[in-house]
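dumping this here before i forget
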Amino acid sequence: MANINLRNVDLNLLIVFDAVFATGNISHAARQLALSQPAVSNALTRLREHFDDPLFVRAGRGVKPTNRSQQMIEPVREALRLIRQQFDGDRALDLVSYKRHFRIVMVDPLEPLLMAPLLREIACHAPLVTIESRPPWNTNVAGDIIAGTLDLACYTFPVSAPGLVMTTICPCEYVVIARNDHPGIGRTLDLKTFMTLGHIALIGELRNHATVDRDIITRGGNRRIAYLVNKVWSMPAMVAATDLVAVVPRRFAEQMAPIFGLGLHEPPMPVSEQHFHMIWHENSNDDPGHRWLRETLMRQLQTDGSGSEAG
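structure:
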């Protein structure tokens, strides 16, 4: 291969190279970079000429990297990271004039805990920032983050894929909620009463993401599920208006209890603790706006006395 004159390599071409490698799709890369598809194709043509290699070949509905691309990607990403760090490291983010539209996935139990404080922060300090919340059950979290169509996810189970960063943000402990004046529950909720009462639960495809059903069946048997819902948000209002009960994450229950007049009861059998996770693309690590978003969300968890620091 002929020697490459780096003076002729436009830095923007390497940014395009990184985006196409990450997404495996020229259209997705164009969307992520806010460029037209012809502009991305033209950049790839110039890169191919520089490196005397196809770099990407067609594969299904997208493209896959050649061996040369696979050899290049880590040095290119490290170089871009260092350059971004120099430009962004000491630059304060001017929130008053900062304009950005973030697309996120936020699971139901975390929404009242994290989104209300975030929206108050935006209203006071970053009025040009907007948030679009995507439905967790209808989103390919890993694929959309890699494609650049999703900025961040706060999720109930680990997601792993090349290029993704994941940090555990807080535990997910479970409690039973019932209306305060429930006629069938005394000072404590015993196993017999718990199994006799009617339950509100998530539909099967959502319930499979948690260990609650497995633990209840193993330690108590089959509970009587009277109503199946597709979001945790539905449960408090329905529990408050009926004699049904529900098993929900503790921190969500603590937020909803005073609003709906709910009592919180410890499950009469051990329920395995799970965790909530925050997931984003490594390309956003040093992005000042993205870092502000992550840190603002994490600050609320730390204020409540739990959670770990985000990267």
